[in-house]
Predict the structure.
Amino acid sequence: MKFRSWFGFFLGLSLLGVGGVTGCADADYDQALKTAPQGISLDNIFTPGTTSNNQASVVTATNPTVTGTQAAKINNGKKQFGALWSTTDNVFDLTRNQSASMWLYFGNTGKKAADGMAFVLQNDDKGLAATPTFGKNISGETLGVWGVDTDKKQTTPDKLAATAIQNSWALEFDTHLNTSTNYGNTGDADSFDVGIAGPHIANNYPAAVDSYQMVRTSTLLPIYSVGYYATQDHAGVLKGDYTLLSNGSWHHLTLDWQAKSQQMTYTFNDKDPVTGKGQSGVSESAKLDLTEIDPKGTGQVRWGFTGATGDSYENNLVVMEEVPGLVDAQATATLTDMTTGKEIGDGDVMKGQDSFKLDYQLDYLTGKQSWQDVQAHLQVPEYLDVTAGKVTYADGTSTVVDVSQLTENQLTVKLTQALSASNQTAHVTLTGKAANLTAPVTVDAAASGFSAVNGVVTAETPVFMLNPTLELMAASLSGSSGQVDPGEDATMKGLVVVPEGVDLANRDMTIHSTLNGQARADFKIPDGTDPSSGRFDVTVAAADLQSGKNTLVTTVEDPYGNVSNAVTYTITVNRQLVFNTVAEKSSFENTTLTGTQQKVKRTLDWQVEILDTREAGAKWALQVTSTDFTRADGQKLAGTLSYYDGDDRTPISDTPIAVSQGEATGNDDLTNVVDDWDEDNGLLLEVNSAALQGKYSATVTWSLNNVPE
């Protein structure tokens, strides 16, 4: 969501230029008015300065795409002074937060431009007649506000500061460098910009002595002579090359005054002059000393624009958008994906064919006037197809928007009600569907303007990604099911098909799958030999399979969030009754013969595990046989291997005997037979009194049998 706020801030201005040298329109002047951005009417906002040489006036913009827009013409010819000041009803209130925004034009002559203009706050006792004290010639260096350097003998800046507009603060837009430092240019107002590298924006107090320094210089010819030139201190400088100001484009300026901190922030080039979209711009702040501009503590100050030219000139014009205190309003644009219910912000994603709602909310905050006859100049973002619209006011009433008038994504809607303290809001709402695409696009922000004769605000939509809505078809090339033996991996071969004309490769597609309801790790389809085949394998490790039926569900997702149909593949693991683990070698404890009959215990390396994956109720029996225990030299052990079960003893021979049994539960039963034995039960070795010492071994064979019901 983005918004622009403004305070309607009007400078009453009459249409007359008064006396002096008359400027003449040129091709650049005409072009400036033909391309003027949307602004407001300046009637009763500015009034011309009352000096006899003032050439400033209000002119009408000729741009056919804007309505009700007037421009303040400060200068448009050589050797001109221009000043336009706010009317008595539109003074700048220093006790309240204030904001102003405007478009400035500085001609198109680049390095040849001269001299610029200034935004000025002043409480000069001369009021509308405030002006630098010129000599015979107008000094462009002063920009119509700074002191006049005409005396090469003045060693301190006191007299120079006294010639400036008094009790003032100026924000200058200086297009011409005045950097002479030789004796021949002392006292000729041509040294203010010493130390500055190019066109610039800066601020300071024109009537303050410490805003200037006098620099001594001398010459030996014709006789030794000493003179002084004045340099100007530049605070809060914004620098640039010769395209910064006089480049044939309109430049946006926003001023923000914070009364509590007494800080003025100026941000330059924060809107695109063609699209009206917001951009970062460059910014500086100045903490104002109110004793310099309002020494009587009135809390009010006159404001306006001044300019001056010499032998060179540029066309200096101002189009106002926001005037402090007149109308304080704001506009916000909100885009909502109605299919997902999600508000779309910068960098977010919307899908093609999703329904949307684009809502422009206008809020009247405060002001001297109601905001009336507002026209909404809507710039709808690309790829959003509008099908309906309406305007809804704070009182609940609404009007239908005729969207058939939408042309090239532009639509003008006139509000039928004024916004004021009693009717503070209006919503212009457009609905429709996003376009259907075959590839993703980035949808740029679109700036819409809401203009009336007493104020202009703008609102921007977010920059977002519009992804195509694609129908992906997935299928199993392995049929609907497959069987594997226990211990074997299972593989389903799959295929995904994308719509014709869509450029997607295997590596763009993500495989999602679940096994028996549990999510498995996602993976990308490898390119393989054919990176656009859409073929893929989903392999399930044997360890992840349970006996009997396993359900594998697979979907394919493209990079735009489109998901295919679900493919279900049944994997059957054949049921079985098997030895899971049997120790290859087991042993009995080392025993010292005593010449008597002895029972030898097992060590801990006996292991017999049975896995039964059959259905519940299936039974099994474990049998065992054994060969005789013999030494390596063939000597048989005088003893017997026996199976003990409590008080029952069964000798083990080559005839199988049952030593354990069980029944399947259907839950992949794992039975460790040895776990049921203790030191007096299970297989034990009996040694007779005639046994001879030595190391004996035998082969014990386990037999696992399915017991018929």
